[in-house]
Give the backbone structure.
Amino acid sequence: MKNIILYLRISPIRVKLAVGFMVVMLFFAVAGRFLANDVPIYVTHHKWTGFPVLEKSSYLSFKQDYANPKVQFQIKTPIPYAATSIDYTNGLVGPFNWKYGNRHLLGTDSYNRDVMAGLIYGSRVALLVGILSNLIALLIGIFLGSLSGYFGNNGVLIGRNYLLSFIFLEIILLYLILSNSFIEFYIPSFGFRMAIFLVFTYLLAYKLFRQRGKLVRVPIDIIITKLLEVFHSIPGLMLLLGISVVVGTMSLLKLTFLVALLRWPAITRLVRAEVMKIKQNSFIETAKSLGIGDFRVIYRHILPNIFNQLMVAFAFGVASSILMEAALSFLGLGLPPDQITWGLLLSQARTNPAAWWLALFPGLMISLIILSCYVIGNYLWGSSSTKLKTGESII
């Protein structure tokens, strides 16, 4: 923590502003229901006491049973609307409008929903998709990039029978994850199925590289690079369209995994290039001569030295993922309309050209968060470049 504080203290003012804006967005994402909601934060009544923002169904049942009782004490949210709350007394109104005692600081959208509440709730979707998709892409990219860069085409010996079993099981697992088969009856959550797929893949791969017996040499670098070429040859939007047809109705976890599917090739290329460069250093040869295993060399001596480059790729990737999610929502290919996103708010400006606030405020939020990610990424890139020039090592 002291290193992070010192790192921010010596940073330029633009980096501090970018970090501050990201902290505000993270606060909106975490505390959104306490900032914008159509129920109070805390209520005291002789028949019911609690936090309606956390127990909304119980609170609404209490109000229905007692016909809107007068509470003894309550703490209201700053914005008296949730993102999906419809204001039936106001239509499409502009910013800073007070009408019938109802306040809409940034106006309402085409469905009479508060824009400010939509921006706060949209930050949760943007950050969740941006951060979680890049964490998944990092796991995939580090694993495949390390194998490709470290072992090359001549360094992997795998049991032949186990290799065939691994390929067969991966195909079956992937089919069960993506298809609308009977597995949905047992595991209906797409995100949980994808998590199971990734865990089984890692376990099978770990067992694969520990297999002994009749061995076969696998050109792992060629396989991974050709796989990267296949993904780069397909336009990202076309790939998303094709997969969205297979997975059916879009959800937040589905969208996260789909964005991660487009992000992992870039991280894999970066990790592969950095591993190929670092493995030529003398300390790697020294570690191998001491009898340290290949995977321990990668984990203990190579990956720590590319940590800064990975953080740069992560910062740029978050910006790219947020822009991708906004673009999909703008085109109507993202989340359903009942889940408010910045791109969905922005898309309403097409059918309501006079409602300039529907284009200005969501577009401004998207631009600022992308700019903040790029400022942080550029600063991290400059710091890592300085370390490389001075020959400084992390280990």
Summary: Residues 388-395 have pLDDT under 50 and may be disordered. The first strand starts at residue 42 and ends at 44. The two ends are 19 Å apart (CA to CA).
